[in-house]
Design goal:
Structural class of chain A: alpha/beta
CATH architecture of chain B: 3-Layer(aba) Sandwich
CATH superfamily of the largest domain in chain A: Thiamin diphosphate (ThDP)-binding fold, Pyr/PP domains
Order of helices and strands of chain A: EHEHHEHEHHEHEHEEEEHEEHEHEHH
Structural class of chain B: alpha/beta
Number of domains of chain A: 2
Shape of chain B: globular
CATH topology of the largest domain in chain A: Rossmann fold
Strand content of chain B: 5-15%
Number of helices of chain B: 9
Helix content of chain B: 40-55%
Shape of chain A: globular
Helix content of chain A: 40-55%
CATH architecture of the largest domain in chain A: 3-Layer(aba) Sandwich
Radius of gyration of chain A: 19 Å
CATH topology of chain B: Rossmann fold
Radius of gyration of chain B: 17 Å
Distance between the termini of chain A: 47 Å
Strand content of chain A: 15-25%
Largest sheet of chain A: 7 strands, mixed
Number of domains of chain B: 1
CATH class of chain B: Alpha Beta
Strand order of the largest sheet of chain B: 1-2-3-7-6
Number of helices of chain A: 13
Oligomer: heterodimer
Number of strands of chain A: 14
Largest interface: A-B, 28 and 35 residues
Chain lengths: 323, 276
Amino acid sequence: MESPPIKQVATRDAYGEALAQLGAENEKVVVLDADLSGSTRTKAFSKAFPERFFNMGVAEANMAGTAAGLASSGLTVFMSSFAMFAAGKAWEQVRQTVCVPKLNVKICATHAGLTVGEDGKSHQMLEDVTLMRVLPNMTVIVPADGPETHQAIRAAAALDGPVYVRLSRAKTRVVFDDDHSFTIGKGDILRGGSDLAIVACGVAVASALEAADLLAADGIDARVINMATVKPIDGPLIEAAARECGAVLTAEEHQVAGGLGGAVAEHLARTCPVPMDMAGMHDTFGESGDADELLAKYGLDGKSLAARARELMKSRDSMKREA
Amino acid sequence: MALTPERKQEIAEVAKQIRVDSVRMVHAAACGHPGGPLGMADFMATLWAEHLNIHKGNLHDPKRDRFVLGNGHTCAGYYAALAFKGILPREELLTFRKLGSRLQGHPHRSAEMGIDMSTGSLGTGLSTAQGMALAAKLQGWNETRVYATSSDGESQEGQIWECATSAAHYGLDNLTLLVDFNNIQIDGHMRDVMDVRDLRVKYEAFGWHAVDVDGHDIDAIDAALHAARAETARPSALICHTTLGKGVSFMEDKASWHGVAPNDEEAKLALAELGA
């Protein structure tokens, strides 16, 4: 029997739709972009509500400060650019003028991660989760797919304080139904299992599900967890996974240092240390190429994750024998 | 609209009090920045006494004026201005920079003190003021004016010129920038470190209404602030030419007084010169 076709949506497209809907419901919502409104998909909002849209030109630091000033006057500000620029170029402005005074600025950064593809390393932001996660007052969300992005944008708007939402350029597999319910700070168990846990965020969630299918064929039951909120992380869910599965593999299209891998390791080191491995970028930049080919090359496709999971289980079992 | 001699004298007294308070605060903290607040005292006094619609009774009014101290390290003078307005108890000033004080070493946004933005990292303040000016326009707060300070040293930051571009693009005539131009930065005189040259010409080229003002001439500052208010479709920049450490002879025009506190003897001499 043929499996149904896989539905694919770019999270940036879902963001653009959600933002325009939000604009219609809430006149306090204003949007800033840095000359990339076509690519970040804020254009739909700008067409519908031109008086509440400010194109700041190619000047991200100024955009972040302006967002802070607008938010300080009672507005809910969405600010978009590519992740490289929103989180990278404007980091210090986000720290000083958004996070220090804890203002209602929602940084929705698109074109994050390896799946930017052909543009290559200058545009493949692989450090943004780390940079944003270390900022006090900041919430960090990496939605897994289109439906979750819709929910995340609404949740971000409703939260009082700064939020960073990491979005992708490429169309990626839809894993949730439209009625998916997203809560900031809560992860989801997408697949039950107790042989090991795979904790993933963003486009790596689809790969994790694929890996779990491959592992199941070998008789391995992997628990798959979608950890869309990297900060504040869902501690109880990770602890339970570590306790019940005895090994945790993280997966993200991001540096493992300080990313989801780092966040999970920090939590488990304090609460329930178990053997861990982290799939993602290991202290290297990306390169040009097709998004799927890049995921495969850097160990983030389903096959690579399954192989990594088997290695992790092997090393866990040999540690057990030695003990 | 010119100031009466009596009013001018009152503003001069406010400036004197800002200077005295600033010296006392930095001395009590045993660290901080005395030179800037002394140099800025005359335009800060004119702004806070005569123009800025921020007082104890309207701190929570969204339509009140806004103030952003872009050169946040000069906040001793800002806190002194808030004390002059009765927003801060004067005795609290001496807690400046101490553990547990509301008066942080650089300003921290506070609704209860009417401090509109956290500053201290140079280059960031003007953009936030721009955001406030855009918000006022968007919400139809036609009486709301946004004032920001900056400095010649801060004008070396690229973000200032990003904002100079965008504030003109959006025609923010409700935004007024006062630049403290004393020709000195931490490492020395501008000509030796990094000369920013003619800021009036630069702001004009970016599309602003820009004027050079004697930053110690209360009448001239007042007139320039009135002219800024009358401006339509353009933001205004007042390039206030000042002397760092103004009013304390041994501090005047000395880069070493940018960020060093006076010792007991120096504080005594400074306060005597200021007539405290």
